[in-house]
Specification:
- The strands form 3 sheets. Strands 3-4-2-1-5-6 form a 6-stranded parallel beta sheet, sandwiched between helices. Strands 9-8-7-13-14-15 form a 6-stranded parallel beta sheet, with helices on both faces.
- Helix 8 runs parallel beside helix 10 and helix 12 packs across helix 13.
- It folds into 2 domains: about 170 residues, Rossmann fold; about 190 residues, Rossmann fold, CATH 3.40.50.
- The N and C termini lie close together (about 5 Å).
- It is α/β, with parallel strands linked by helices.
- It is about 40% helix and about 15% strand.
- Bound molecules: adenosine monophosphate.
- The site of adenosine monophosphate has 17 residues, from strand 12.
Length: about 400
């Protein structure tokens, strides 16, 4: 079991470097569009401050190449002031004398927000000198940035090796949800996969195969599986280098008695005419971009019988309103099923939110890539380096 902040003793007066994932969506004007990632970190920050720690909070934001005033953490610090009035300071540097000076002025129960970690090229390179500078700021390191836990960066990997460390409440919750779902799954267990890239999800499907009763495959990745069965997919997206893997998955599923459901009809674009059509048979220059009504019924029937559901990836090109119906219907069915439900991946989580059913989902994971790695049965590097009890 990983050490959590509850296991840290005597943190009163200690300086804690807290890595959060405050990679929030911003408007063109730099306003925060959705502060969910900040909200998710509040329990950990509150706990540390209430116990008298001096907290330095750091995060990356976007993908800056060097300093970028539009990707400053300043708006994040302003947002945090809502939750911790008169307690929040901001330093417009990541390391260096100004940061050290700001840290020395912290009182017990204060919070200092550092500038965007990725303004320093050492962050993503896990550079030794940058790690040393970050580590020199604090007595203890706490990681609560689940969204980047599959990465080996300076602020979540290098620093953890240098300081006494622990995970925060958000990472603790994410780990326990996935552990429970995979170690004591409730049956029928239905796994739903969508999205475009088959290669990214092969390990995931293989790992789920040992636990799930039914695997539903939709979205762009379904076409590789359909082609593997010799079905005409027109000009739909396909990963030709994954056909053999898809065949193997279908064979293994049959041997293990796992039901695999694939689309039986589609909403497609006829390329030449540029218009959307419903069809059970793709051919010629048709491109399948959403699941059709028969498929929606087929998938929803199975979903409504489930006792546990995991879902990763949209069932169609849902960003285009003409092709979002399948994903939205699946989101609503997952909510209606009453099954223990876990949704991971930015697209599926946003489909759940835009369908207005977020409150009916047991766990909306805060990390797309990290949750996929957990579902693959992998250990996340940033969590591996945290001490065990
Ligand atoms: P991924 O990152 O692999 O989860 O893929 C997510 C993307 O898959 C989204 O941007 C969707 O638009 C895209 N997608 C879903 N279904 C299809 C499809 N049938 N054809 C092409 N792209 C799709």
């Amino acid at each position: 079991m990983k050490r959590t902040i509850r296991d840290l003793k005597n943190i009163q007066g200690k300086t804690i470097l807290l890595r959060c994932d405050f990679n929030v969506p911003l408007s063109n004007q730099g306003d925060i569009l959705d502060d969910n990632r900040i909200v998710q970190a509040i329990p950990t920050i509150s706990y540390l401050l209430q116990n008298g720690a001096r907290v330095i909070v750091c995060s990356h934001l976007g993908r800056p190449k060097g300093y970028d005033k539009f990707l400053s953490m300043f708006p994040v610090s302003v947002n945090l002031m809502k939750y911790f009035p008169n307690r929040v300071r901001f330093c417009n540097k990541v390391t260096g004398d100004e940061v050290s000076s700001a840290v020395s002025k912290l009182r017990d129960g204060d919070l200092l927000v550092l500038e965007n970690l990725r303004f320093d090229p050492g962050e993503e390179k896990n550079d030794n000198a940058f790690v040393a500078k970050l580590a020199s700021l604090a007595d203890i390191y706490v990681d609560d940035a689940f969204g980047v836990a599959h990465r080996k960066h300076a602020s979540n990997y290098g620093v953890a090796l240098k300081l006494p460390n622990a995970i925060g409440f958000l990472i603790e919750k994410e780990l326990s949800v996935f552990e429970k779902a995979f170690e004591q799954p409730k049956h029928p267990f239905v796994a739903i996969f969508g999205g475009a890239k088959v290669a990214d999800k092969l390990n995931l499907i293989n790992n789920v195969m040992d636990k799930a009763n039914t695997i539903i495959i939709g979205g762009g990745m379904a076409y590789t599986f359909l082609q593997a069965q010799g079905i005409n997919i027109g000009e739909s997206i396909v990963s030709l280098d994954q056909i053999d893997n898809a065949k193997q998955i279908l064979k293994t599923a049959q041997e293990k008695g796992v039901k695999i459901l694939l689309p039986v009809d589609h909403v497609a674009i006829v390329k030449e005419k540029g218009k959307a059509v419903k069809t059970t048979q793709l051919k010629g220059d048709m491109v399948g971009l959403d699941i059709g009504n028969k498929t929606i019924s087929l998938f929803c029937n199975e979903i409504l019988k489930a006792k546990q559901i995991i879902w990763n990836g949209p069932l169609g090109m849902y960003e285009d309103p003409r092709f979002k119906k399948g994903t939205i219907k699946i989101a609503k069915a997952v909510a209606k099923s009453g099954a223990y439900s876990i949704v991971g991946g930015g697209d599926s989580v946003s489909a759940i939110k835009s369908s207005g059913v977020a409150s009916k989902i047991d766990h909306l994971s805060t990390g797309g890539g990290a949750s996929m790695k957990l579902m693959e049965g992998k250990v996340l590097p940033a969590i591996e380096v945290i001490d065990t009890l």
